[in-house]
Amino acid sequence: MTLPAVPVSQPPVDKFQEFLATRARPQRYTGQQRDLVNHIFEKHHHFDAEGLVDDLKKAGLRISRATVYRTLSKLVEAGMLRRHDIDARAYYEHDYGYPQHDHLICEGCGRMIEFQDARVDEVLEQISRQHGFVIASRSFLARGTCLECNRSRSSKRKLDLI
Ligand SMILES: [Zn+2]
Ligand SMILES: [Zn+2]
């Protein structure tokens, strides 16, 4: 399940071009990078670099691993992707054209459930105010067991009793 997209003025592929062009040392924007940006922004999900490399192969896109890694970090720098470091692995998801949200992570199957609740922001704002702290970015994450994993666990437990 994904959250409703946020309308944006430019397609991601153009937004990234603008980012590259406005850097101190303007950079080349190759056809490979364009294909990659288009592919990444086709659908919203949480992915890691190796998963993306496999995905590109399946889609018949020939993009080098080095380009994938380099482009991912530039997309984060451009504020277009959000990076989550979970269990020493980097996961990415859209930030550009996608609303701010938080996650529940299942330790059984690795699933990331997204949610949006203004109360989380309120609590964080209150706490920050108490500390005279200014939040630049945030991510709230809870770990546990999802409904499906809970169900299969309890049915296994039932079988053990029989
Ligand atoms: Zn699960
Ligand atoms: Zn997410």
Structural class: alpha+beta
* Record field, number of beta strands: 5
User: Strands of the biggest beta sheet: in what spatial order?
Assistant: 4-3-5
Spans of at least 5 consecutive residues whose pLDDT stays below 50 are: none
Q: Helix tally?
A: 6
Instruction: Look at the structure and give the mean pLDDT.
Output: 91
Order of helices and strands: HHHHEEEEHEH
Helix content: 40-55%
The fraction of residues assigned to DSSP E strands is: 15-25%
- Radius of gyration, in angstroms, nearest whole number: 19 Å
Shape: globular
Structure ligands: zinc ion
Largest sheet descriptor: 3 strands, mixed
* N- and C-termini, Cα separation: 36 Å
Describe the structure.
44% of the residues lie in helices and 15% in strands. The chain is globular. The protein is an alpha+beta fold and 162 residues long. Strands 4-3-5 form a 3-stranded mixed β-sheet, with no helix packed on it. It has a two-stranded antiparallel ribbon with strand order 1-2. A hairpin with a 5-residue loop joins strand 3 and strand 4. The model has no long low-confidence stretch (mean pLDDT 91). The protein contains 6 helices and 5 strands. Bound molecules: zinc ion (ZN) (2 copies). Residues 106, 108-109, 111, 146, 148-149 line the site of one zinc ion.
